[in-house]
Structures are given as structure tokens and as C-alpha cells.
Batch of 2 targets.
Target 1
Amino acid sequence: MSDLHHPCEHWAESVSLAAAGCLPSDEEQEVRRHVETCSDCREQFRQLTELCRALAEAPLATDSTGEAIIERIMSAFTADVARHPDVRTRAEMIHPPLVFRSLDIWTWIMRSPASRLSAAAVLLLAIGGIATWFHGSGATPAAPSEPLTTIAPIVALPPQVVDPDVTNEIDAGDSSKPVPPQSQTLFRDEFCDLANSRGGLYDGKLVLDSKRTRAIGPFAASQFKGRLALTVAELSEALGADSRPGVLRVEWEHIPESIDYSGFRYQGRIDPAQRILLPQIMTARTPEDFRGFTFRAKFKAVNKTRGDEATIKFDLRIEPVEDRSYDNRLDFGTIEASSTWKAFEIDLADAKNGERFVESFARRGSGLCALIFAQAGSIDDYHDGDGLLIDDIEILDQRNQ
Amino acid sequence: MNTSEDDQRELIDRAQAGEAAAFERLAEQCAVRLWRCALALCKDRHWAEDLVQETLVEAWQSLARFDGRCELSSWLHGILRHRYLKGRRQQNSARHSASDGLDQMPCMAHTPGRSAEMSEDALRIRRTVANLPEEHRLVVELRFFAGATLDEIAAVLGCPLGTVKSRLHHALKKLRQMNLTVNLFTLDRE
């Protein structure tokens, strides 16, 4: 391999960078103009471009597995932001509040062992003085400052009898049942404020629409045969089950020949403060403690080519946002939706795998959850274009009824 | 659906004003490259995941420090480098080892469990890259395997942009020579 001939040596680095796609367009044009006039540089550029293309294609096989990781990272990040929602302003960072500056000075002073001993003595005296003062005056010490996120504890969870026949089934009649006034809404999404957005997972490539307002994304096994397209659409004008505009649609647009799993993960609105966060159920010790917590949603199957015959089966579950989330799911079972709107309701205590779900909450100390709409069984049972319209998702605390 | 520069500037302004959703969108745009860079640095998927998460959280908490003098993604990559070096220091002190820095990293091509995922060509390329001197290997991995820009690479490696350009040029030159050797060897066998 010969290097560039002497007169063109100063072009060598630029030629490499142009081949690697690292030059701004004006500089790249300059290099291209030069290689057109110089056969040696042209050959160098050709070889380097081929090499760079081969290099760039080398990591493609890992992309599909990377997506799941990115999704986990973003979920975990969102959970953290939900716990610490405030960003410090520039003024606060340049001029931190007095207490922090004082702490910095204090930390600096405390580097010396002599200072530590002196400080300990002063602290003992101060504690003694304050204790005497409180004892003498009857004053109450100030309450500690509130944490950023207040978690409402479950004080008592009396078991209630719920008619099992009304749960775990789609029943259009339930949709009109008014929510009693004493029930507390833990999460609600009526999808009335959607943007017209569309994104999805196309043959392993995740495409997100910057206009989207909901945190929902497709997921799928990285290994599959054939073409795969899972799409999510926010339909701001389509009429929902409540006859008001705004419906979420998830769709198996193109079905591969085989795939182990696929589906959609919904976490609420894009705004981290409006995700499915259920601190109220974090203190549950057994699945029976969930008794009185109700999940509701309305579904309708759609398929452009099948019209009124459209049906779709899907697995529905709540998963904690964490690694191995499937193992710790709260499983609502397999639901079958048809071409008319139907309501689904379940008491969380009646869902499967509650023990693992409870353990997960206790271990993580976070109430962030995702709602999963997953492929039910074999993909052979699905058709291209099978979709599900989703409306009026609610999670209620009805323990006091 | 790429966000234009204006859109990004607006998102940054909104994020700096405290809108978490705006920062989340910015983070989503950079998360893939950050994760790949983290993987190129630490060669451990779990650690890489933690690094990116820590980077985003730190960036969110100190977003007011971002003054727009560089691209947001370069700034994030700089944070990633600091998180990585901090993690290395903690690991090294745990092992009572004095070594530190980027020169101790195993090669991406040798990460267990990856071989089955890659084609033969990709494996051959990775092995060739793995045989480069450390400083050249890293630049190539970050540019081509992680998709980082030169500014991002400079931020991740903590070196001037000119150094990154020079290293990339010499790395490609070496790869071309090594690749040619491999190709000739293949031809001889045929």
C-alpha cells in the first residue's frame, strides 16, 4: 500500500475524514473537487470510502437488542425525573442558596482533624443548650422538610367481596356505570389532548414522532423472520368510546412469519409527571391488599381489510418499570376485542402473578408502571393490519365503597 | 422525523426552564449514541446502561450549566466520560489497583456472547479493529460502531478535536493496510 504522493500529502487527512463522513459539507466539496482532478487521491478516497462503509455496517446486528436497552434507560431516567422533577436554574447554580454555600465552607473547614474535634465539642454544647431550651419552653421542634415526592401510605386494607363475574370480561354495559364519588382516581387518560402523530418499529428500527404526546412504544423480539412493522398512532380527531375525539391506535401493520413476542408499552403522557405512577399500591404486602383497586379501559378491534369482522386477541398486563419486568407483571390475562367498543374492568386483586408484582414494588421503592398490550400466543393468529383502538384508561382506588 | 436545529434550541430552552418532558425528548435523541459510546468505553452492557442513565440524570440536574458553546450531545458525551472515569476509579480503588484511564479497556470484539449476533464479515472487521493500537481503536469504535461525531468523540476521550482527526486518519490508514493483508491472505487460500 503506497501513501499519497508528495504534492498531495496535505490532502491525506482531509481525504480520510471526508471518507469517514466527518467533514462539513463545504470542506467535503473541496476534497471531492480535488479527487476529481487527482487519480491517486481518487483511488485513496475510493478505498477509504469502501473501508468506512464496511466499518459502519459492522455493528448493525446489535441494533435491535439496543432498542430494548434504550427504552429501559429512558424509563429509568423518567422515573428519576419524576422523583426529582426540578431542574436548577442558572442563577441557582452560579449563586447557590446560602445554606449550600455555608455547607461548602463547612466541608472545607472540616478537612482538618483539629477542626473536627472542636466542632464535636461545640455540637455537644449546642445540643445540650437546645434540649434545655425546648424542655424549659415547651416548644416543638420544626418538622423535617417535605421530601420531593410524597407517598401516600395505605393505612388499612380491609378485604372486600367483589363479584367475580363482573371482572376479567369485556362488558359493554360497564362502560356507562358511573364512578361513585368516593372513588379516587390514581391514573386517568381519556386521550382528549392527542396530537396527530405516528411512529413505530419497522424491521427492527425504532422511529419516534417528535409530536407525540403519549409515552408509548412498540417492542419485539430481536429475532424474527420476514417483515415486521408495529405502529403507534395518536388519532386526535377519531371518535372514541365516549364519542369524543381522541383515540390511541396500536397496530401490527406487517406480521413476520415468526416472532416470539411483540407488543406495545404504554406509560402515560410524555410529561414525566403524568406517567402511570402508583405509589398508593406500593405498601401492599399481599395481592389481596390490592382489593378495591380497579383497572378500566375501553377497546375496539380494527383492520382496514376486515372491517366489521375485525377481532384481535391481546395479552394485557401491568409491569413495573425495571429489568425482568415481565417476570414481575400483574397479569390481566388474554382479552379479545371486536369491532364495537367494549369496556374492560378488573379488580387488581383478581389479576394473576400478584405475589411477584407485590415483591417487586417492595424491593424497588418506586411505583412507576407500564401497561403492556402484547401479542397473545402465536403470531400466526394475527393478520397484517390488525389494530387495537384504546380509550379511557383508568386506575381507581375504590376501597372505601 | 429528525428534530431541526431550531426545534432543538427550543427544546433546550424549555428544558432549561424546567420542563422535564422537553429534556426527555432531547435525551431520547442522544440516548442511542450515548449508549453505544458507553459500550465502546466500558464493554459491559449493564454498566453502559447505568452510565447512560447516570449521565442523563446528571445532565438534567445541571442543565443550567449548559451554555450552548458546544452541541448538547457533545456536552452529554463529556458527562459520560466523567461518569465512566469515576466508575473506573471506584473499581480500581476497590481492586487496590493504581491503573486508571482509557488504556485498560478490553476490546469490543472480544465481548462474550456477541459473536453469535454478528455476521462473519462484521466479526472479521471487529477483529481487525481490535488489533489497532488502543488510541486508534477507540476512535474507530466510537466513530463507526457507536456513530459518534468527532466533537462527541473529543468530549468522550477528553482530547482536542485536532487529535481526534489525526487519530482517525492514521487509524484508517492502518486499517487499510491490515485489511489489504487480510484480503491477500484470503485470495492466497482460494
Target 2
Amino acid sequence: MMIRPLLRAPLYVFLFALAPTISQAQTSLTWDSIQAQARGQTVYFNAWGGSDAINRYIEWAADQVEEQAGVDVELVKITDASAVVTRIATEVNAGNTDKGSVDLIWVNGENFKRLKQEDLLAEPWAADLPNAALVDYKLPVTTDFSIPTDGQESPWGGAQLTLIYHPERLQRLPENAAEFLTLAEENPGMLAYPRVPDFHATSFLKQLLLDLSDEDPALYQPVTPEAFERVSASLWSYLDRLHPLLWREAKAFPQGIAQMHSLFADGALLMSLSFNPNDAANLVRTGTLPEGVRSFGFSRGMLGNIHFVAIPRNAQAKAGAKVFANFLLSPEAQLRKADLNVWGDPSVLDPSKLEGPRRMQLISRDAAALPADTPWIAEPHASWVEPLEQAWLERYGDGR
Amino acid sequence: MSLKALAIAALLITLALYLPTLTLLAPYQELHFGALVQQLFLSSEVPAALLGTLVSTLGSLVVALLLSFIFIGALIFTPAYSRFVGQLPLLLAIPHLAFAVGLYLLLSPKGWLERLLAPLGLNWDGLPLVQDSLGVTLALALGIKESWFLCWIIWAQLERQHFAEQYLIAQTLGYSRAQIIWSTLVPQLLPKLRWPLLAVAAYSLSAVEMAWVLGPTHPPTLAILAWNWLLDPDPVRRQLGLVVTLCLMLLMLVLISIIWMLPTLLRPGQPSGRRLGALPGLGQPLLKGVLGVHVLIGLLLLLWSFTQSWFYPQLLPGKWSLNAWHSLAIEPLINALTLGFSTAVAAIFLVLLVLEMSFRRTGWMLIPLFLPVLPLVVGQYQLVLWAELQPGWFAVWLAHMLWVLPYVYLVLRPAYQNLHQDQLLCARTFGLGPAALLLRVKVPLLLRPLCAALALGFSVSLAQYLPTIFIGGGRVDTLTTETLTRFAGGDKRLLGAQTLVLLLLAFSVYVLAQRLPRILYPAREAMH
């Protein structure tokens, strides 16, 4: 929100100047003293609250840390992380440097980039967590959309773009963007993607862009106007052809993947979309999708990324937030998170660092989930998101 | 402390609570309008969003006005009239959001209506019944919802007028019912409907709850566009959001002038003397149809809340389950209850005390009803930042008061002014001081309006979305915010259960308010 404070007390300028010395002192503390400091703190954990399964999982994790470490975690259910980033920025700009309303935030990509660029993050801390040793560093956990995390956020889970279909209604699966267009030509009105700037919509555009441009290396560099023009040209001519063949001729778009799931389940669409490879398996169990659905990806691979938790610079309960983040990385918490009956979010731990039964649990996948051998395509540099969304809205935003 | 001092304190508190109406313009002083307005015109979304906003707002006004005149016109002086008037408070108590969600379940693609008509071979994939790009469905839904409010206002007006005699005279002169309503009732009522219509317009223009569920999505209405932009990471986009809220205020000015000229524009002219034949009675079947839709969407909410899986083309759920009810959280209910009752009670206290000051000019208390919600919330946020108030229950309480106060005032002022002066005089001659007069005479005499104010204040607080989410920083979940979160989450089972709780709470408070006088004074029938 672009509201400036009406008053700016000189006291805050003073506190602001002191802040670096205080936080330097904090990083030298050992884990034991962090734990001691955390006891009794209240951590406001801001996380997207649209899924019941996720909310229940977070409540469970909160109960565990309360019991094990005496940290009280309050889940703040949000609909949009960028709004919370804006709130943090507003607080810090208003001189609030140590009693912010957010202690830990579930974040990645664009929002992390903004937090980092505007210097809204706590000093590096993620590598100091004891459970950081168990993380699978073969996954892209140290960069977030090509931006180094520098230990200012701790990995929580993995995600990969996934297409969901029903084998009885769709026999021949499209293996790339071109075949997706052919499928649309054969079944007009039966394919869709959500409206930009929905996160799944932007991800789908990036997947198409990577496919159409043959993973142009420029996509992994900060965007420039020339590169954008050159690389995105094929996407626009593709979408110009695709849109008239989409659901409601692209004069309307599903509001989000929830509506897509519902349209898909009722037979109005041939495919749905998710960023969780286990989503289809989950949704069948809860009765949202019919029995027998399966997941697939393009033959080149599907866009994948890691989601993280980060501590804002002005958090009140930094120690408590670290203790909670450490618990979220524990094998206990990660396995439960990966359990389809709980949430089904892929773990970020390295199976080889765990012992027998737990390792097996980590690598098994449900039949409805995205096949585990689907290759990962790394996210383009985060700076591509904004121009991509802008250009899309300029071209197609008026609904004509 | 004397009553006088209390009343002054109440006035000051009320004025402080109304500060957001003054700060709402503060954020604009730092904007560079030239560049921003240029960008606004370049944005492809704004013109289409403006069109959707205009269609839904103007459409809702037309639909609400037409329906209310048709319903009242068809029912007045028939036995069904008093039954209809009795149903009105219940219809008014339905939260906008609950109505919208119910309609969504009925009309959405592959929704219940499409399933019902599928065997007939009807297929309207090309004709969207919800979230159409012009906002027609939103206009109809808002219009139906607001028509109960206008019917209620018209009923209250007719109670004070001698319309029966006019009707009788016109009837004996041989005019048909429709002709009498159009040429005598409408011109008399229109000037009195200006203020209620303004409140309807302000709500339709900038409330996001119903627009989110039923309105256009590509692009959305201006209010939702502004809301999204205000929360955007890009500072330029946030400034654009502010400019759009300013546009909403300008649109409100346009609407004010249109509504003000309405009685002149719709002047029926001198009757020509021609007697038109009776029109076929469409009003009563139309009302039955609209009420039927209400019952249907109530049933749909109920069915979805007990569903495990329910796919097209099934007309009834395939598998049943109690899961949705098990997964409901209790905090939103507790927050809605505590906020609703405490704001309503506090507002009643403040309004009564302000009225006790016997100021002549208290009309300003209605101002928030005629301002678009979004700029007011921006103004509130400005103050919250300035006061360094932590987002939370209390901040939300303060924010809700801005809308609870004017509605409570709306109910209490006429009742307070209609108190019989001779009764009060009589009480004074018995030696009652101002405080005793208020507590022992006025309050008991005002018991029914007080209960109505309690119910209305509660339901206003219950319905608040933007202030709750914005001033509460997302920390305070109420049934309304939770219902919209469920809508975004897309699980119709949870959505059904959550919306039903919202609806049931609104109904129970209404029933409680109606019964309260009977419970408090069981022996005095005249007070019931």
C-alpha cells in the first residue's frame, strides 16, 4: 500500500541506525541460546490459507513446536503473499524496525525478490538451522527463481507444474506446446488456463515460453527489453492462435486452479493444472476429482521450483521463527507433509541422508501423481515475471 | 458523571470514529496525477472494467427500483401484503455474500441449473450465467438483494401516508392497478427513495464480495481492480490503485446527480384520462419465483455442505459426508459474534447519547453510507498507521464502527423523535431527572427499535469484508472473510458449510432481536 506515515518520529531514525549492530550480535548466538530465546515467543506465520489440508498441517506443526520448544505459532491465513510483502515494506518505511506484524512468511519467486531487493529480510540464518544438513542440495534450494537465497530463506517444499487428465476422456497426451495447440484445435472450448496474474497462469506461460524458445539461456538472466522482445515473440503468436480455441474463447478465464479443477471434474475441461505433483492424488481422496485421474508433463520436462519460509527484518520473534523453520525441516515434519492423507507436498530432504523406512516413504509416489521421472526445468530469472504479466495484460487484459 | 458530560464524550468518540471520512483524501496529495492518469488510459483493463462497473451499478439500481415497485404494486391492498412485509426483515437479514455464493452454486458452469436442464438438450456453453463480462448477472443479483431494502423503505413510507384513499378514488374512477401505481405511487415515493438509492449505489459501486463471486473476471470490476492494484508489489501499480479509488468517488458523484434528478426524469406527466385495461398480474408470480430461488439456493448450500463427491450431471450428491462440517473452524464464528454484538451495543450507546444532546444537526452520522467502501478503508488504514495500532481485533472493531454507527442511527433517530412528548412530560412532572428519564422511560419505550438496531448493527458488522481483512491484517477471521477464502479455495463442500453458518447466524440474530421484547417483558403485550 502506498501510504506514507503522517508522522515520522526521530526516535525511529535512531533505532534504525542501531539495527545492524543488534542483528550482527544475534547471528553469533549458538542454536541453544536461540532455542532459549525462542521459548515463550509468539510467532505470526503468514501463509496462504486457501487449503484446508495445509492449514491443518500447519496447526499440527504449531502444536508440535509448542510442545517441544515452547514456541507459540499463530497461523495468519493470507490470500496473497504480495499483500503481506507490501505490509512489511509499509511498516519498515514507517520506521517500524523491530515490532513488525509478520515473523515468518511462506514465500518464493517474485515476492522473495522484492523482499530481498527492498532489504526487508533478516540477516542470513537458514544455514545455521541444525536440520539444514538433511536438505537435498541437488534440488534448486540455494537459488529462488535464479536469485541466490543467501541463507535469507529456508527451503520448505518442492513443487512442479503438473497437468491433470482422465485417461478415459483423453487418450493421446500432448508432449509439447505444439501438440497442446493441436489438441485445442481438435477440442475447441475444452482447454483453459487461469487468468494472469494468477500464479498458476504465469507459470503455465513460462512453461510455454521455455518450450517454444527451446529453453533460451536469456531466460535465466535478468530480463532486458531486447531479450524480452526476441524470446517472447513466439509466445504471443502462439497465444493468438490458442486463445480462440480455449474455454469461452478466452473471453473469460477460470479464476484460479480451484475453478479449473471443478470445471475439469464436471467434464467441461479436458485438463486441469496444478503446481503440486501430488495434487491429483490428494484431490481424488477428498472427492474433489473423480476416481481414475492421472497426471503428466511435457516430454521436455516441467517447470519446478522450491518454496521457502523467510523472516522479515522487522520480525518481533526471530528466534521463535527460526525454531519453527527448523522444525518444518525435520524428517518428522517433512514426511508428514509429503503424506497424501495430510498434504502431499514433496519433501526437500535428501532420501540418502535418512534411514530405511523413512527413505522409502520419501521416494514412493501415488499412481495419480506426476511420474517421478518427469524432468525438472528450472524457473526463469524472477525479473521475467513482471514484463510477461504486463505484456499479457496489455494484449489480452480487456477481454476482447 | 452527569448525563450531559457522558453525551459530550459520546459525541467526541463518534467524531473520532468518523475521522476516516476526512482522511480518505490524504493519500492522494503525493501522487503525480498527470503521469498516472496517462498510464491509466494506456491500461487495457480499465475501460472494460469501467464498463462492467457501470453496467452492474446502474443495472442494480434499475433492477432494485423496478422489482420493489412491482412487488409492492402487485401486493398492496391484497391479503398477501402483510405476509410479504412480515418476510421482509428475514430477506433483509440474508448476507449479500451468502446470496451470491448460493446463486453461484446454482448458475455456475455445469452447476445445478445446467444439470437440471441438461436432459432437455439445452446447452449454453456460449452463454455464461455467472461472471459474464458485462456484469449483467451481478447487476441482477445486487438488484434482487437490494430490492428488499427498497421494499422495506417503501413500506415504512406508506405507513405514514394516506395512500389508501388515493388508491380508492383512482380505482372508483376506473383506473387499473398498474396505472394507479405508476401515476400516483411512484411519483410520490421517488423523492423519498433518493437517500436509500444512494446507499444502494455506494454499495454496488465498490463492494467487492458479490463482485468477486458473480461479477466479471476478465477484467474484474473497478473496485476489485483497485483492490488488487493497492496490494500489488509494484509501487506504480499501487498508485494506480489509489487513482482508481479516486475514480470510484467521482463515479459516486455522477451517481448522486443521476439519482437526484430521478424524480424529474421519471415524471409520468398529466394523466391522459385513458383507462388502460388491467395488466396480467405478473407481480405475484414474479415474487414467488424470486422467493423460490432463495429457497433453492438455501437447499443447494445445505446439499453441498453434506457432500463427499458430486459431479456433473448428477442432480444430487453421489456420496455424502460430514467432512465439511468437521473442518469448520470456531474462531471465525467467535470473532463474528464478539465483533457483531460489541459494535452494535457500543453504537447503540453512542447514538442514544448523541441524540440526548438534542442537537438538531446529526444527519452527518449517515455520511459513511453514501461513500464508496474502498476509499474509506484506505482512509482508515492511514489512521491506523498514524496511530501505530497493531492489526487485530480492536483495530477491526474500530473499523466496523464506521458502518455500524450510521445504520444504528438510521433506525434509532426516527423512533427517538417519534417518542410521545406528553409521556415524557408526564414523567418529568413526577420528578425524573434526564438520566432517569432516559433509562426508565425512553429506553423501555424504544425497546423494539433498540432490538432492531441491535440486529441491524450486528448484521452490518457481520457483513464487513474489506475493513476486516485490511485493518485486521488478515489476523482476524470472521465468517465473511472465511467464506470468501473458501470461495477462493474452490471447495464447494466447505464453501456450502461455511456459507450456511454465515446465513444461520444472520437469521438467528434476527429472530433473537424479534423475540427479545417478549422475553424481557413477558407480561406487557403492547411492548412486543
